[in-house]
# Entry
Amino acid sequence: MKNKKILVLLLVLAMVFSFAACGESADNGDADKDNGAADKNTEIPTYIAATEPTFPPFDTTDEDGNIVGFDMDLMNAIGEDQGFKVKYKAFEFDALIPTVQAGNAEIITAGMNAEDPERQAKVDFSNTYYDSGLVVIVKEDNNTIKGIDDLTKDMKVASQIGTTGADKVNELHDDGKIKEAVILNGFDTCMLQLINGDVSAVIIDQPVGKTYLKKQPGKCKIVGDVLNAESYGFAVKKGNKELLDKINTGLQNMIDNGTYDELFTKWFEGEE
Ligand code: ARG
# Structure
């Protein structure tokens, strides 16, 4: 009889503990569910931004190989303002639009001219954030080329593949004004070929040309007038209105609150 009482007592205790444990896991479950919901609501999306980092000071790499520049700082500030983070990935410039079209990146941050109709047919551009133009760069000791009109049929001229600079060089070649259009993957390589004497000139965006001249003073110079005025925009996949609106709103906020000017000073040393 006594054993039976002990057995019943043990069974009752086991039942009490098992209910308590279930109750606890349910709470945890609820807690996890609540936390899960909270994570979902507070989760900040990270977008992939495609760029081509031989375009200082807009898109370049630091000594550790990180992708940095005015474009990155500005887009990071826009993301902070609009609730998203950005991860930058490097591609060849002519692969940037196909990459966004294929959904392998959400944004293009690459000092890209937003006023090109062919590009506008493929992606949607933000409001523009920088007005630029093309220039001709020659070696410092070149006293024959004073501007684009002095390029001749015996000359090779370089620019970067897929860019407005490449369009201009190809146009010169197609019009029989230069011997060869040397179209390369990186502007760094274009400048190297100029310094080595492999090409007579490079056609490049003015602010980027100036940056390359600063990096290697006394080796090259800008000649002639600014050609082909253009304005840079960020780009997203066609129809991605939600992200485009965030970028435009964030960009305007950065202009209004002075962040744009701070970043301009940081990357252009206050240059006009
Ligand atoms: N602004 C020129 C264009 O839109 C050149 C851009 C090159 N950008 C770069 N990240 N490499 O074609």
In short: The pocket of arginine is lined by residues 51-52, 54-55, 59, 93, 110-113, 160, 163-164, 205, 230 (CB under 6 Å). The longest strand covers residues 220-237. Confidence is low (pLDDT under 50) at residues 19-39. The CA atoms of residues 153 and 179 lie 5 Å apart.
